[in-house]
Write a structure and sequence with these properties.
Keywords: Signal. By secondary structure, the chain is α+β, with helices and mostly antiparallel strands. It has one domain. The strands form three sheets. Strands 2-1-5-6-7-13-12-9-8 form a nine-stranded mixed beta sheet, sandwiched between helices. Strands 3-4-14 form a three-stranded antiparallel beta sheet. Strands 10-11 form a two-stranded antiparallel sheet.
Amino acid sequence: MNRFAFSSLILLAACRVLNANAGEQDNLPIPQPISAVWTATQVCMGLTAESLQPSSDAGKIKNEGAIEFKQFGIRYKIPYVPKVDKFVLKVVLGDTSRRVIDNYILISDQDLKAPFGAVVVTVLPPAITNVDGAFAAVDTLQRGLAQSSYQLIHRREFDDSRLGRGVEYITPNRVGTLCFPTSKYQFVTPEMGIKTTGISRFFVRGNELVEVSYIVNIPESIPAADQQDFVRREMDRYLAGLSLTEPAH
């Protein structure tokens, strides 16, 4: 095979890959509509409770299918989620119940139902000055929330081409709770008749910790050996909606 023919084959293969990827993007389902957006306050210590007020930005968020934390330069476009008819978003700002400042985007499909997805932006305390320190704090927190179930968690560090160094936690059988994802882990019970896995990814941006967490429903057709890969692919898709801009001052 001459050099020209070889180059032509390489170019053809590359075009096929690009076209396939474009087709996959085109074939992604359209995200479900956002039916309600609430500004929420929640109590997660002891008896859990929350109060809801209609968000003044609800119209804009519904139209764009996305929500912003302008002060942090973070925008999140809500993705398609299987087996969901509509989205209900709850926004919690400036929560200090964990003795840090947390800001939440909580994603569910009913007003009073526990979230199955979340974006959390936490202002790191001054004592944490680098990524290693932040990830050590994350690991301490996950151990505390999971307690004896921590041994079930699959942890790994990785590099994301857009978001930088990250740490991931995959937890079989985890389910959402009212204060998900920063509350104690709870798990599927046999009577629920479902199969789920929790996945969380953490990144550091300046003095903020960004967490994206989801409870992923596992189809019966996915063998046990393939479930982690399936959950990671779902999270890759969910994470694609997170974009970073310059924080508003």
